[in-house]
Amino acid sequence: MSESSILILVRRVSFMKIATLMIPDPPLSRPEELVGQALRKVRDRGIGRVIVADEVVRGVVSTRDLISFFITQCYSGCREAEVSSLASTKISNVMNRDPITVSPDDELMDALTIMVARNFGSLPVADKERRPRGLVTERELLLAYKELPSTGPVWKFMSRRVNVVSDDEPLMDAAGRMVRRGFRRLPVLSNGKVIGMLTAADVLRSLAESVINNSPKNILTARVRDVMNRRVITVDPDIDLRDAASILVQKKIGSLLVVSSGELQGIITERDMLLALHYQMHLRTTGEKE
């Protein structure tokens, strides 16, 4: 494909409207609703964010925010009654207030630039009056890859330093490490071998089940192996980013382990893919202007 043809494709992708990519009916909570209700909505919808709104967008709560809330409050340990009490906290006390929003008429490059520059995993979509209209996450933006030609191998953008967790580690300890270090997923090891993946979504589902079923003891005593996802998908370092993005979107997962000759080489996440997308598109459009 000629360079001019590639530039045309990149420009077409960068001009894609958010309305064509966003989740049109994201989970919504009113400010007076409780944390336990938000946990249920995230668990039931499988979308890692809740927009907090009355007539207008007031805030947003992510999976990480909800886990962090419980971990911070239970840093020195929690009794069962305290976990249940925390679930009765108003969501307005946990949400990120007055979040940056994008419009349905904004372009993909607008949202992509904000999310990369501000390290956001999602953006609420609102109209001019800030009424909620949708949500755009990293996964939705990865759909742009299917419109692009080859964008290079995974090894150029993967994270080579892979932080792991033992399958026997207490879940609350692993969740605390994820919150403190900003991890959304950790490969799980047993006897030196990767046997699963622990994600923030796994932690939240376990937390939600404990709160909803009024059995907080479960989350307090659980081990990583009790809630981890045993499905681990690996790719070769030379696989194209476009193909890796397709796997993430189709499988509805947030990361792929990169393996060569049976050895773990790194991990490529939705975040890594988003950074790569922004880099590739910025590089192309900047080169065009020059």
UniProtKB/TrEMBL annotation:
InterPro entries: CBS_dom, CBS_dom_sf, Diverse_CBS-Domain. Transmembrane segments: none annotated. Coiled coil: none annotated. SMART domains: CBS (SM00116). Gene3D superfamilies: CBS-domain. PROSITE patterns: CBS (PS51371). Residues 22-82, 95-154, 158-215, 228-285 form the CBS domain. Pfam families: CBS (PF00571). Keywords: CBS domain, Kinase, Transferase. One of its GO terms (molecular function) is kinase activity. This is Histidine kinase.
